[in-house]
Amino acid sequence: MKIRNPWSWIPSLYFAEGLPYVVVMTLSVIMYKRMDISNTDIALYTSWLYFPWVIKPLWSPFVDLIKTKRWWIYTMQLLIGGGMAGVAFMLPGDFFFKATLAFFWLMAFSSATHDIAADGFYMLGLSEEQQAFFIGIRNTFYRVAMLTGQGLLVMLAGFLEAATGRIPFAWSIVFFILAGMFVGLALWHKFILPKPAADIQRSQITAQTIFTEFTQTFIRFFSKKGIIPALIFMLTYRLGESQLVKLASPFLLDKSEVGGLGLETSQVGFAYGTVGVIALLLGGILGGIAISRKGLKYWIWPMALAISLPNLVYLYLAYALPDSLFVINLCVGIEQFGYGFGFTAYTMYLMLFAEGEYKTSHYAISTGFMALGMMLPGMISGWIQEQIGYPYFFVWVMICCIPLFLVIPFLKIKSGK
Fold first, then answer.
1. Is the pLDDT at 301 greater than 60, yes or no?
2. Cα 398 from Cα 254, distance rounded (Å)
3. Which residues of 377-400 are buried (b: 16+ CB within 10 A; e: fewer)?
4. Binning pLDDT at 50, 70 and 90, where does residue 377 land?
5. What is the pLDDT of residue 326?
6. Residue 110's domain spans which residues?
7. What are phi and psi of 2, to 5 degrees?
8. How far apart, in whole angstroms, are the C-alpha atoms of residue 27 and residue 15?
């Protein structure tokens, strides 16, 4: 194994893992809103972009069998960079919506594949002690990527919009910068990533071997005790949040005449991408500490409430329409803190449910259902909002939080400390 200091590649690797996800899922929503795409189309088409993460378990075995994970990492980063450049080139054109969506699909598939390779490489490139030490570091830099994508890049786009008066041009510059970043990351990782002895291309693998392991993995997953309430839990835990997240930025950007708060692009970047991400990070840290001390069974109800009740702040904002940026930022911070704290229970449950012989694959399948639970409700959220308006839409979001509390009593939860 070619020895490399983990500090030289773990921060950059997990920054590269988080950034394309937040660009595809969040930055695209804000960009399309600024380009006057309707909420219905924004929610429908950007929610479809979750699909690669939904079906990620279906091709994860091929990442294990074809080439090395090291090769997959820098190759996918190059493809992501190409997708960013494609968006930048197409934005000023007349058919920018369809063209940029095609490149977002390329980024989504490349990013989902990159996730598989990066998480696998993390386990191969580090000892067990190092894996435990760097788990917090990798999560921190994933959050830094979110801060960059939802905060700094949105504020940059807002500055360029104001400076040039040309919205497509401003967003093109942002995506050209992103493209350059990913080409640089790919070159960096091609030379700096270690070469673990275990990261080799597998040989003597037949189609029969792949098919047998693949089917056995799914049979074992769907044979687990308590699978039905577990699947309902996976699909409903973020039922309200899945719709809120698609309309939060459009709500902040829309003018008061249509029920929005009328913020500038840079103000949304600060509120949702800076204050929001910091609150999300704090909530996640406290959630992890809480579960480590008392276990998931103790915290499941408080954390389910934490991810649901703070959505009420958007209901307040929709009815009060405050002018104060302090109040708006405070509300966004409260909702994101609750989401970060409450989401800890979800990830812990997925890890506990995946325990067993096929732990890695079963966790990947569980995260696929997690993504499906975000994709399907998100697709119709824009249409619902445009039919009933923002105030009633946020009432609907609160109603969608109810199914979660109906399924929790049926879960089989281990201690999970």
1. yes
2. 21
3. bbbebbebbbeeebeebbebbbeb
4. very high
5. 96
6. 1-205
7. -80, 115
8. 16
List pLDDT tens digits, range 261-270: 999 989 998 9
Q: Which residues contact 365 (CB under 8 A, 6 or more apart)?
A: 57, 217, 218, 221, 354
User: What's the number of CA atoms in the CB half-sphere (13 Å) around residue 162?
Assistant: 9
What's the rounded Cα separation, in Å, for the pair 318 and 324? Answer: 14
pLDDT in tens, 328-367: 999 999 999 998 888 888 888 887 888 777 776 787 788 8
Q: What is the CATH number of the domain that holds 329?
A: 1.20.1250.20
d(CA 248, CA 332): 9
Q: How confident is the model at residue 1 (pLDDT cuts 50, 70, 90)?
A: very low
92 and 158 share a domain? yes
Residue type, 12: S
The residue type at 98: K
Distances (CA, A) of 193 to 2, 78, 94, 117, 149: 9, 15, 41, 13, 24
| Alpha-carbon gap, residue 396 to 173, rounded angstroms | 37
Amino acid sitting at position 396: W
Whether residue 337 is contained in a domain is answered as yes
Residue type, 404: L
What average pLDDT does the segment 33-55 reach?
91
In one-letter notation, the amino acid at residue 118 is A
Q: Which are the contacts of 359, defined by CB distance < 8 A and separation ≥ 6?
A: none
d(CA 373, CA 104): 20
Do 201 and 235 lie in one domain? The reply is no
Please indicate, yes or no, if residue 225 is contained in any of the structural domains: no
CA 17 to CA 210: how far, in whole Å?
A: 27
Alpha-carbon torsion 162, 164, 165, 166, what sign? negative
44/191 same-domain check: yes
- 386-406 residue pLDDT tens: 999 999 999 999 999 999 999
Same domain, 180 and 241: no
Neighbour tally for 140: CB within 10 Å: 16
Report yes or no on 241 lying in a domain: yes
Take residue 158 and report the two structure tokens written for it: 């807002």
